[in-house]
Write a structure and sequence with these properties.
This protein is about 65% helix and about 10% strand. The protein is mainly α.
């Protein structure tokens, strides 16, 4: 078992990700609650739309900070990396939306105002999709890249005669 407190390779990025996640949560929750305040609804389609808008605003913030702070050693800021980020964001959004909408539906059994049900469901959705997002970003989007090997020829000679030629990879 890996001791997270001794492994800065995991702990440090996770702590930075958690700080950014808290900021993203504020953006996400504030946006969602503003939309719910202005346009109260229990309609699942509208809830999905509101959740998508709020989550997208948080993801824009997330890419900027994770590429420039959390995973800056491995971030290339290439089109490919950004595409992988978008793919992970879409997968995380799907997870977030399913948990949020289903959770809000299931929490209707509680005798509390709808806005509380929706915020409890959103908190659970953020937790689950946040874990998935960190995993995707660490393993796929901002993964450590191995340095490309340099190739060179080694020529073995004896008395001005070539005995062997071989291409080898070096670091």
């Amino acid at each position: 078992m890996i001791n997270l407190l001794q492994n800065n390779d995991i702990l440090q990025p996770f702590m930075k990700f958690t700080i950014i996640g808290a900021i993203n949560s504020i953006i996400d929750l504030t946006s969602l609650n503003l939309l719910l305040f202005l346009f109260p609804t229990e309609n699942s389609i509208i809830l999905m739309l509101f959740n998508t808008i709020a989550y997208t605003l948080a993801m824009i913030n997330s890419y900027f900070w994770n590429a420039n702070w959390t995973f800056h050693q491995h971030a290339t800021k290439s089109r490919r990396e950004f595409l992988y980020f978008i793919i992970q964001a879409i997968i995380s959004l799907i997870i977030n939306t399913i948990v949020f909408v289903r959770g809000a539906f299931l929490l209707r059994i509680l005798a509390v105002p709808t806005i509380y049900e929706q915020n409890i469901a959103k908190g659970l959705a953020m937790l689950i999709s946040g874990i998935a997002s960190f995993t995707f970003m660490r393993v796929i989007v901002f993964r450590k890249r191995r340095p490309k090997a340099k190739r060179m020829y080694v020529i073995l000679t004896f008395k001005n005669r070539t005995i062997a030629k071989r291409m080898i990879d070096t670091m």
